[in-house]
Design brief:
InterPro entries: Uncharacterised_YqxA. This is DUF3679 domain-containing protein. Pfam families: DUF3679 (PF12438). It contains four helices and no strands. The protein is mostly helical and 112 residues long. The chain has one domain. The protein is flat.
């Protein structure tokens, strides 16, 4: 019985992670969201000098038409988007805490 419960939990976790990865992949393909790399305090100062490329009006119109064609605005899509945003914020805060702990442990300095 214990083995069955472990298998069910593992399979459920794999399916959940697959669904989240699928939502993220579709968001990237439709141009809705782009992944943002993790940044450390040293890199943040360098990134502010670089300007983001601007999209032309035709590109924005084409992306909007593609989104309307696919019809992403339904209950499950919105639920997946909000769940993905929450997991993104949670994982980023966890990773930044780990990075600060490692920096403080290895270098003996406070994270800024």
């Amino acid at each position: 019985m214990k083995r069955l419960m472990i298998q069910v939990i593992v399979i459920g976790t794999i399916l959940l992670l697959g669904a989240l990865a699928g939502v993220q992949y579709m968001n990237e393909q439709l141009g809705i969201s782009q992944p943002v790399p993790l940044s450390s305090p040293e890199i943040v100062a360098q990134e502010t000098a670089v300007e983001a490329p601007s999209l032309s009006r035709q590109e924005l119109t084409a992306k909007y038409a593609r989104v309307e064609e696919v019809g992403r605005l339904n209950f499950f899509s919105e639920m997946g988007t909000s769940l993905a945003d929450g997991m993104n914020k949670l994982s980023r805060s966890f990773l930044s805490q780990v990075m600060a702990f490692v920096r403080q442990g290895l270098n003996g300095e406070e994270a800024g």
